[in-house]
Design a protein that fits this description.
The chain is mainly β. It is built from three helices and 13 strands. It has a single domain, classed as Sandwich (Jelly Rolls), CATH 2.60.120.
Length: about 180
């Protein structure tokens, strides 16, 4: 099998949508989510750590990033559905402070490559959603940081009404993160 991915550019420089080739028959589907040779060639990097989360509907995780040891991420949804949100935190970028959002779900198997310097968040849209990510550097809790999910200056449309979510479920830490203007 020759592993292939369709690569789509987004409105934020370096942020890419990857769609793996899917093989289907009466038993179900098969997609290769990661092939070191293909991904290294396409993205020009390697991943060092895999992580996953399982969340109830309405859980909002983020907007997170590391101040030192920034991480590139390759993210996908194995079970369920999320609204994935990326914020450009690169001060020299033409899209600094802008966001991009996309629905990721198990049925389409789309992945998102998030380069270093971008903040990342996701809102789970179904119970028992399993979100998977590969990172280009390790997690360092002492450098973990974030931005308040509802920072008015970012004006992120979380589409809560569309998904029937009244109040997102956040960690205590995520409820008190600073606004973007307070970081820079």
């Amino acid at each position: 099998m020759d592993d292939k991915f369709i690569i789509e550019e987004t409105t934020i420089n370096g942020l890419k949508i990857l769609v793996p080739e899917r093989f289907s028959d009466d038993r179900g589907h098969l997609s290769v989510l990661y092939n070191k040779n293909v991904i290294s060639k396409v993205l020009g990097l390697e991943f060092v750590q895999d992580k996953w989360t399982k969340s109830a509907k309405g859980v909002l995780r983020g907007i997170h990033f590391q101040t030192k040891h920034p991480q590139g991420k390759l993210v996908s949804v194995l079970i369920g559905k999320v609204l994935d949100v990326i914020v450009d935190l690169r001060r020299n970028s033409a899209t600094f402070g802008k966001y991009f959002s996309i629905e990721l779900n198990e049925s389409e198997a789309k992945m998102l490559y998030i380069p270093e310097g971008l903040g990342h968040a996701f809102l789970t849209l179904e119970d028992n959603t399993i979100f998977f990510y590969k990172t280009t550097d390790y997690f360092y809790p002492e450098f973990d940081s974030g931005i308040l999910w509802n920072d008015k200056d970012l004006n992120i449309d979380w589409q809560l009404d569309k998904y029937g979510i009244i109040n997102p479920i956040l960690s205590k830490r995520d409820m008190i993160l600073p606004k973007l203007k307070d970081l820079y």
